[in-house]
Every structure is written in structure tokens, then in C-alpha cells.
Specification:
Chain lengths: ~625, ~350
Amino acid sequence: MTAPAGTERPVWTRYLPYLAVLGAAVVIQFLVTTEFPARLDNFFSDPVDSLGAWGQVNRRTGTHPLFTLVFNPLTSAVDGGIGLLETALTWLPWYILPTGIFVLIARRRRFMDASVAAAAMIYPGLMGLWEPTIETLALMSFAVLVSAAIGIPLGIWAAFRPRVEAILRPFLDIMQTVPAFVYFLPLLILFGIGKTNGAIATIIYALPPVVRLTTLGIRSVPKQSVEASDMFGASTSQTLFKVQIPTAMPTILAGISQTIMMALGIVVLAALVSAGGLGGLVLQSLQARRSGRGIAVGLAIVAVAMILDRVGRSMADSDRSKKLSLRARFGLLGGLLIGTVVGRLMEWTTFPSIWAPRSFDWIDTGVDWAIANWSPYTRAINDFIVGGIVVPLRNFFIGTVAWPALMLVVAFLVWRMAGPRLAVFSVLAMGFVGSIGMWDLSIDTVIQVMIGVFIAVLIAVPVGIMAGRNERVEAALGPILDGLQTIPSLVYIIPVVTLFTLGPMPGIIASVLYAMVPGVRITALGIRNVPSESVEASETFGATRPQTMFGVRIPLAAPTIMTGINQVIMMVLAMVVIAGLVGGGALGFETVRALTRNLYGHGFEVGLAIALIAMVLDRSTQALARRFQPPAAT
Amino acid sequence: MTSTAPSETPALSAEHVWKVFGQKPERAVQLAEAGESRSDILAETGCTIGVRDVSFAVKPGETFVVMGLSGSGKSTLIRCAARLIDVTKGTVHIDGADFTAMDSQQLREVRRKKLSMVFQHFGLFPHRRVIDNACYGLEIQGVTREKRHERALEVLGVVGLSGFEYHYPQQLSGGMQQRVGLARALCVDPEILFFDEPFSALDPLIRRDMQDELIRLQQSMKRTIVFITHDFAEAIKLGDRIAIMKDGAFDQVGTAAELIRNPATDYVREFTEDIPKAKVLTARDIMVAGGDSSRRVDASTSVLSLVPMLLNDPTPIAVSEDGFVIGQVDKATVATFMDEA
């Protein structure tokens, strides 16, 4: 029994805490009932309901200064701004839009970008989607412009004042972790349904990347460049505008294009609050189960994003040498003016539709064929996953396990992953979610998330490792991943719904498809960035390929891979919630129900539950990712 | 403008400059003045001492080199002198005016008119073409585009960058990028030039070219230069006077010959040991008392070039300065010196 000093304790003792917690959980199981006592069931919902009703009344006929002086004018301003954009865009002869976009970008000699953007503007017209596309274009441009107008100055401010950044950071974190879906409801109280709600939700959701990347960009300007500018006696604003902002421009632009991508994701959902445009059409095709039309509309949304991205890039290009000559620019401008005048006189304002979304009917035919031929198999998979996994898990965690036992186990696991502070937070969060009566729904959602994450990671990590090792694999995957990431997620849920019937399954599959992308990309990045010297060192010892892979590459890439998994989890959660629209049930469905039926209180509680789940999942996996990081150099 | 009358005012001077990083700088200075060690001060106050009571004066037209290894505080010192960071204690004077006491308006004014700096990693502006990098200082001063471009073209020609004016910095090699840095500094016609390890990021051959280039330029322009380096050979090659810096303070200040002949500390001696002394020391440094002879050399002739003269003809050579004979060297003196070296 006398172990020599300095040796480790036997391995099995490491599992003692786990066994102890499990034991405690079993004991609790026999002492407590399973039902969570929802003591605060009406604590939030009642006041929020009355607040909602109060808001509803005040918005229309109100006298309260908050509405008469703040929200109603804001609503009119936003509505007016978007309306003005829309009117202007529809007033123009149709061909002025694509040519105008072409000229706008081509004046920087970016002819390739200009052609792509012009083609993207023509596509929706050909599909007979001209008007809804203009509506979406106006909504998105407005949201992106406002995001940039708020985000860039805020980011610059934060770059210079660490205090400001410290205050902003938690807000940006929450804005980025909480699924976009959650924003609509509180805004519903203040702004009602319509474009304003959609625009403001989009702005809130899309703001963090501009702020973050602007701060990052300004901070990463080489110190010596700033010192050089100072040494010439430049004032603070001269240095800012002549050195720091131009040098940071590529990073700021990356932020704006991320913002555009995020806006793209939410613009479909904005249809739920009647923001109209292409999003409404996607929802319609979802309800009518018309995949072909859904994809045609989805591509139009992608086209809008592409236009905004290219125009944004050309605007930020400050390289004078690439400008066209003054004469050429005046010529183009004159041409546009003449074109406008002629077009107005001839009333060529509506797009001469040649095709219609019907040209994507072959997809519907294909899906029909697939249903006819594959559904025995897909239904079997569906029944296996839903009947064999989802339902038993749900029954076990909701029906059998006592809530304090579950809380204990979760708290323990979070504590092992992320330390005591987050463990306490998770206990408080779970207690809170249970108290407001969201226990069962939350567990249901978390189960779906876990299954989605499990499948996504199972696919994404090996594929990512392959892509990281082999450039050809990565090149081949590129377009597929791009497509999955840019096409609004709701669009490819449609064929999945038809194949697998309603229920949790489409949500899980769609979330796997959607979330795989960052998983694959970040894993590949991690594997590729393993220093070649480390690999060579391993090989010179005569290690086999698997030995090098498992002994060197994967451990060195582990922190990066964990970051990827964190993103997978967040995206699966976002998607599982959205899947409430296609019968995924749980919190997602409740959100949709609350939105469409003005159940303010209920929606608010659901939103809180989703936000808390997102925060606990995000923080604990991020902490786990940090633990994989080798100790920093001192 | 080279002053013929002996000017008493140094172009740049520092008086008891301290720079302490941390929350309690005053306390740290007190402790340091009481003679406590760096590590004790760090333990007690959490402060790091960057520069410790440094004083020096640079004459107009002089090249003053501060040589030190990394962590010696040389970069901090040059940043204090240029007021890129504020000193904790002490003063810096430029042309006799208290630079450390100036408000930001005056500071900008002095920088625009008198100062320039060349950086280790060049600090170029990647979004500007070479010509727009070069004329940045003039742009800040509000000089018109036409005039500043004219001046930039001229200066770019002087540093050998003709033909590259409309490239972007990233398109040039490291050595050429630093020429852009040099052109940018010269474009505003500064009185004082700060060089912060400008050539350490370059490979050895390019570095030698750039050093020669700087010597050539300095011969015609006669600016006051403060030059930071970690390379003792570079310090000897460029510096009229050299300060050896260690742990935030100067170990010794003097000409290359003074440092090599009389290293004040073991630390200084370590640097001088690897230096080919025959190239640095001059006839003046090794001469013995003696009279005129048929052959005369100037006192500044290096020992190395005396060797072939004495091999051909071993008779003593007179050493003269300003026409007066001040001593002589013969084969024995040189041989003894070479043995010791």
C-alpha cells in the first residue's frame, strides 16, 4: 500500500467524482417527483402580455410619449426610408437597375464583379420575381446601410477605448449567440408587424460582425504605421482617416460582407412578421411544399446578397489609379440618364418576364419522383430516428428523470468543462427556465440539438480532416459548402420535409446540412495549419501516417476543431429553432405560434429559454475549446 | 545650413530621462534611485523600468548611435526622445526648447517642421502607392498634391527608387521598402532624423548597401541623426558617437575608438572583442611620441591601411593632424597592436 512519493493515483480514482454524482442523481431520482414546479409560470407572461396589449393599443391610438415621441416616429422613419428606396427602385425603368449596378462597380474597373452583380439583378426578373426582389433589396440595403452606419463608428470607438469594448462585448456576444428568431417578438410589442420590425431585427442581428471586425481592423493596423503618421505631426483625425481606416478597410469590408450574409439569413424569417418580399414567397412555397419555386426564390435572395456585397466592395475601393477617366464616367452617367428618361417616357418600368418560377418545376418533378421511389427508405430512417431515438430520449428526460437529478448532472458536466462560474450560471438558467414553465419544451429542443450536433460532427470532422490533408478534396467541396451556406436554410428544408414528413426529422437533417459547413471548414483549417515542422519531426522518427495523424496533427488542430464544433452547435440550435416552422415542435414551434398569434408573454418566455440555452451551450463549448489550447508562452 | 560658429545648443538633448511602465511609476523611480534592483522593483510595484536616468546631448549634424540588445530599453528611449510615448521623469529638449512640456498643438508643429523617423518594420502605408507614401508628411502639412508629388519624385530619385513611384509597397523587396521609408522621412526636409533599428529586418548584403547609402546621404545632407541598433558593427560604421545601453541605462558613451580602447565595463568589452580593431582604430590611437619623417599620414588613417605601408618600408611614419605632426608609428608599434588585438 505504500506507493512511492510522486507517483500518480490509480487511474480509476479519476472517475470517482463522476460515479459519486451519478449515485447522488439516482438517490435524488427516488426522492423527488419528475415534474418541475413552474412557480413563476405567469411571472413574466402576464406583465409581458399586458405590455403587449398596451403596446398594441398605443401604437395605433396611443398618447403615451414613448410611442408618440419615440417608437411611432421611428417606425414611420424606417418605413418611410424603405418605402422611398422601393419607390425609387420601381420608378426607374427596369434595365436601369442592372446597368446602373454595372456602371457603379465598373467605374473602379472591376468588370468581373460588375458583370456578376448585373447578372444577379437580371435573374429575379427572368424568374418573374422582380417586385418582391426589389422589396427585399430595399429592406436589405436599408438594414445593411444602417448596420454599417452604426457599426463602423461603434467599432472605431471600441478600438480606441478598451472600456467601451468591455461594455459592448457581452452585448455583442449575446446578439451573436441568440438565434435571430428571438428578436422578433419583443420588437413586435414596440413596432408591430411589418417592414420596420423586420428591418430592426435584421439590424440588431447583423450588427455584431461590423462592430467586431472594425475594432479588430483598427487594432491590427501596424503600430509603426500609426507612429510614422504621428511623427509627421498628423492630428488624431488625420491619422484615423488617412492611415487607420484605409489600412483596416479590408477587415471592415469582411465585417460588412458577414453582415450581409447574416441579414440574408434573417430576411426570410422576417416574413413571419409580414415584412413581405422574397421571404414571404419562401414561406408560401414551404407551406405549399413546392421545392422548385422555393429554390427559385431562394436563389433570388442569394442574388440580392451578391449585389449588395459587390457594390459594397467597389464603394470601399479607395485605389485612385483604378478609376475610369473623367470622360468615361460622365459618358456612362449621361447614358444612364438618357436611358432613364427614355424608359420613363416609354413606361418600360416592369420587367418583361420571359420565364417564370415554373422553370424550376423540374425540381418539383424530381422531388415527386424521389418521394414515390425513396419514401419507403426515408420514412424508415425517419421512423428509426424519431421513434427509436428522439421519442425514447424525450420520454426518458422529460418523463422519467427527476429534474434536480438532471440539473445536478448537467451542472457537474459544465463544471468539468468550464469551471464553477458557468456551472452556477447553468444551474440558475435551468432553474429559471423550469420556473417559467419551459422545462419540457427546452429539454425537447436540447435533445434535437444534441442529435443534430452528434450527426454533424460525425460527418464534418472526418470530412474536414480529409479536406485539410488533400487540396483536391477541399476544392471539390468548395462549391457545395458555399451553396449550403448561402442559400437560406429554409429553402432546402422544403425537399427534406417532403421526403421525411413533418416532425423533428427535417429540422435535424436541415441543421446537419447547415451546420456541417463551418465544421468542415474550420477542421480543415486546423489540420492545414499544423506546422509542417511538427509533422516532419514525427515522420523522421518513422511514424506511420495514422500515428502522425493521431499523435501530431489532430492534437495540434484540436483547439481549432473545438472552435468549429462550437460553431456547429450554435448553428444547429439556430436551425432546430427555425425548424419549428416545419413541425420540429418544441421551442421553435412555440416561437412561430407566439409570433403569428400575438402571444406576447408566451413568446417572451420561449425567447428567454432559447437565449439561455444558447448562452450555456456557447460558453461551455468555448471553455472546452480553450482547454485544448496549449499553455501560452510567457 | 551647416553652422560655422560653434553652436552651444545641442540639436537634441535628454536630461535624466526615466520611463517606467506600470501603475506606480513614481514609487518605482524612488526605489530605483534608492538603488533597488529591477526584479525587486517589479515585485514590489509591478512596474518595469524601461529607461533609467539617461542623459545625452546630440550636436547638430552629429550621428548619435544607441546600441543595445533586446530589452535594453533602446526602443523605449528613442520613443521618449520622439515623444511617441511620454517620459515618466526628466526632460527632452529640441533646439533648446522643452519638448516634453509642449502641448499637442506645439508637439505637432515641431514634428511637422523638424522631425522624421524611420522604422524597423518600415511602418509603410499599404494602401498608398510609393509616391503617396513618400509625400505623406507634406500631405499632413497641407501642401498641394502637385507640389508634394514633385518633391516626392525628387527624393525617390535620391534614394534610388526612380521607376517605382507608382508601385505599392508590398510589391517591393524589403530593402526597397526601407528606401521608401527613408524617402518618406527625407521628403519633409527634417532637422532631426530618428532611426529605430531601420536595417535589422534586412538581410546582410542589403543591410550593408543601406548603411553605405545612409553614409553617402549623410555626407551631403548633414542632418542630426539618432540611430538605434543592436549591431555593434553597424554602430561603429555609422556613429560619430555611440552609447552602449544595458538595463535601461547607458554603460558608456564615446566614439568607436574610445569604446574599443577603453571599454568602461565588461559588458562593453564583450562587444568590442569581436570587432576587427585594426579597421576601427586609427594612427592617432596607437602612435607613440616621435618626430617628423619623410612619410606622413593623417591621424584618422586606420591601422589596417598602415600595414601595407610599413611592410614596404619599415621606417617610422609621422602622424599629422591639421598639418602638425603629433606623433609617429613604426613597424613595431603596429606589430604590437596587431598581436594584442
